[in-house]
Amino acid sequence: MQIFFRVDASNQIGSGHVQRCLTLAEQLKQKGAEIHFIINKQKGNMEAEIRRQYSVYFIECMISQGQELDAEQTVSVLREINRKVDLLIVDHHQLSVQWQNKVKPLVEKLMVIDDLANRKHNCDLLLDQNYYKDYRSRYKDLVPASCRQLLGPKYLLLRPEFNNVNRNLRKNESIERLLICYGGADPTNETEKVLTALKKYSMVDKFIIDVVVGSNYINVARIKQLCSEINANLHYNINYMATLIAKADLAFGAGGVSMWERCYLGLPSVVTIVADNQSRAVNDATDKPFVINLGWHHNVNVQDYYELINRLTVNLDDLKKIREKLVHFINQIDQHKCVVAEEIIALIS
């Protein structure tokens, strides 16, 4: 089985799309697939991480030049490779039915990974792993009638490390251990805001604090300094995120895939929206409530984080309510079953 991914990462958009594609790629590889990635050459594209296991092909254009040019260059790559493509998986919010119509004749099947439900797709399989109030009907008029839709948290793509972590480790009613992580790049600098707020907090010494930054993070020197000032543990580009989530009592992070990973391990988190594609999912998750939502990053400052830390450490009711709701969320997901990979194998077999 020859399976190709078309996906991008960068210092601007972060690494979340590539990370979840790598998760799916590993599951498919274990089922006998040969995996290839098609990416562009922008800074922070995670080429090195992908190349550790898979072949990488490049397109020269930037997505800002339009999806038609992107499609033409993707077609050129596929023709140059000159082999049967059993499945092309596209994870890109700027690519829609126009792109898919140009590329689809060169592949046996086409799959889309989406979060937005804001454009039409021409695909055989669609995955949207997010929880939304209306998640079962979001793509009703956006995909062909024959398209198989995998919708909701049941289809959450979890990295292998999450399968080996006890989901019931958290026993504390109080807040003793904090986790701070805003993805691979943190372009809005939320990590620094939270650490600065904690520096102001008079009882910061009572916390064990874990701070995680990724390979695309550009402000590492400043974060190292702040971590040393409050005796926080700094973790760089790690492969044991699940362990840190399982140990924590409260997290600070963004929306996206990482938000659902925290929910999966039952960890209450304070979420700041840092990208358009996170807004709807974060707001709907807040209504359950699965998370505490501070809103858009540009409206959140150090003082907001400081006041929230003060409030949560005095009154634990919000966290207790979230923990109770997350128990029901966790029970929807089979910890050891690669549901999406099995659906893909069924499609292309």
UniProtKB/TrEMBL annotation:
Keyword annotations from UniProtKB, A to Z: Hydrolase
Positions bound to substrate: R159, E261
Coiled-coil regions listed in the entry: none
Superkingdom to which the source organism belongs: Bacteria
Keyword flag Hydrolase: yes
Name recorded for this polypeptide: UDP-2,4-diacetamido-2,4, 6-trideoxy-beta-L-altropyranose hydrolase
Transmembrane segments: none
Organism of this sequence: Natronobacillus azotifigens
GO terms for MF: hydrolase activity
EC number: 3.6.1.57
Residues at the catalytic site: H17 (proton acceptor)
Name of the coding gene: pseG
